[in-house]
Amino acid sequence: YKIDDDGEIEPLNNHQQEEVDSKTLYAESIKKGLENGNIYPYYQPVLTSDGEELHGVEALARWEHPEKGLVPPIDFIDHAEEYDFIDWLDEVICRRACKDMKELMDQTGKRFMLSVNISAVHIRKQDFADRIEAILYETGFPAEYLAIEITETSLIDNLSDVAVTFQQLKNLGVKIAIDDFGTTYSSLNYLKYLPVDTIKLDKTFIHDVDKSPIDRRICKTIIQLGSDLDLNVVAEGVECDQHLSIIQDFGCHIYQGYYFSKPLTLDGWKTYLEQF
Ligand code: C2E
Ligand code: CA
Ligand code: CA
Ligand code: CA
């Protein structure tokens, strides 16, 4: 059944029913992937000082599908949100990344930030901070090196509800970053109401920063805002030398993008780390 425009309940036609069935099946296969360990993180380096120093790494979910090969998050994150298991997915990635990076830190003696993506839908759950605390405890990963990147795909209508959760995270020592800054509904409200450490300048603003005067002004303004508020600003999607030099001129010194490295497998990341 579906609810029509007048709020009346109407049966679905055959075509609509098939669509629902195939979506449900797809959601089930994503859950299988989570159960079997076939959804796990890739790691993209985050650099500073012209790329000569390491700032950290971002864990990005990938699904190793038995038939389709490596599936990008755009093909499964939305489903996990719609079918209400994004919390499970986020935690699988977070736990795995904390475990693997803790091991790597112990092996190498190196320290770097680890960023994980958390859907805003997930943060609204009451026990979110407790679950992160449990993962830190279980893996031994140092809280002060963990950053939570909040990705907003739906509106958080009551920020005061989540403010408590954020304060709990801060008390643990975890850092808080706003992902895709400037592209989402409540970017500025987040800064007003929540204890944010970092904003991530979305790659859509960086992409044409060398060609488009308006994009240039947006980048400059966001970087300035970040600096006025004493926040770290991380630029994502840095693909070339021009991108890098423009944002550096604007005062942004933490960056991530294909210019430095694509997201890597765990082994690829271990090798990359050797140069620092
Ligand atoms: P995001 O958090 O904004 O991550 C940046 C995306 O840009 C990643 O795409 C990354 O591979 C890509 N990227 C990095 N450098 C460049 C570049 O120089 N050029 C271009 N064109 N792209 C670049 P990816 O890995 O496909 O992830 C897409 C989105 O999926 C992420 O965007 C994030 O919102 C979401 N996501 C990924 N993993 C998770 C997760 O574990 N949980 C949740 N809730 N969302 C996740
Ligand atoms: Ca992110
Ligand atoms: Ca995003
Ligand atoms: Ca982004």
TrEMBL record:
Domain (EAL): residue spans on this chain: 23-276
Signal peptide bounds: none
Name of the protein described by the UniProt record: EAL domain-containing protein
Record organism: Piscibacillus salipiscarius
Shown segment, full-protein numbering: 179 to 454 of 454
